[in-house]
């Protein structure tokens, strides 16, 4: 499996390790490539859109010609996992004129909905498709405030969706790559197989 991490900004190494762990659990290997320029996305089986600064990520993927390739990837039914700022960039409504959303997940998003850096927190949350709660790390986390009809809510905190699936896209407000638990990456990339315990 060739996994591409959109590496213009964000938790690149952590996502690379997580997708390798998820693949290994299914006796597969994952070749991870860092994507900073156009031309690599079409060769990838799966993509990861890390957290970071959504305005910066949006600007750079548009400038480098990566945005159109990401849309084509999803249109072909290939999976992508978008986390934190990645959720904002992949949304249909980022509620911020500085972000040009990709329109891949039919949601509107409130940036920093759970507060600033000092308000970051961790919580064990139930996630649809997982037998046990997932230890989620929220850092300047966004929240989803409106979900389109075709979007499946996978997890919520205080009644606000924080993980969703829209076709081949799984998007989270939290950072699953900052834990040793690869189950969110497993949900995103191996949805038809038994989920890891």
Automatic annotation (TrEMBL):
Signal peptide (UniProt feature, chain positions): none
The keyword Lyase appears for this protein: yes
Alphabetical list of InterPro entries matching this protein: Class_I_gatase-like, PdxT/SNO
Protein name: Pyridoxal 5'-phosphate synthase subunit PdxT
Catalytic reaction annotation: aldehydo-D-ribose 5-phosphate + D-glyceraldehyde 3-phosphate + L-glutamine = pyridoxal 5'-phosphate + L-glutamate + phosphate + 3 H2O + H(+); L-glutamine + H2O = L-glutamate + NH4(+)
HAMAP family on file: PdxT (MF_01615)
Quaternary state and interactors: In the presence of PdxS, forms a dodecamer of heterodimers. Only shows activity in the heterodimer.
Entry EC number(s): 4.3.3.6, 3.5.1.2
Record's function text: Catalyzes the hydrolysis of glutamine to glutamate and ammonia as part of the biosynthesis of pyridoxal 5'-phosphate. The resulting ammonia molecule is channeled to the active site of PdxS.
GO terms for MF: glutaminase activity; pyridoxal 5'-phosphate synthase (glutamine hydrolysing) activity; transferase activity
GO CC term (a single one): cytosol
CDD domains attached to this UniProt entry: GATase1_PB (cd01749)
Keywords: Glutamine amidotransferase, Hydrolase, Lyase, Pyridoxal phosphate, Transferase
SUPFAM superfamilies linked to this entry: Class I glutamine amidotransferase-like
This protein's encoding gene: pdxT
Species of origin: Halorubrum coriense DSM 10284
GO biological process: L-glutamine catabolic process; pyridoxal phosphate biosynthetic process; pyridoxine metabolic process
Residues at the active site: 84, 175, 177
Family, similarity comment: Belongs to the glutaminase PdxT/SNO family.
Domain of life from the UniProt record: Archaea
Pathway: Cofactor biosynthesis; pyridoxal 5'-phosphate biosynthesis
Residues given in the record as L-glutamine binding sites: 52-54, 111, 139-140
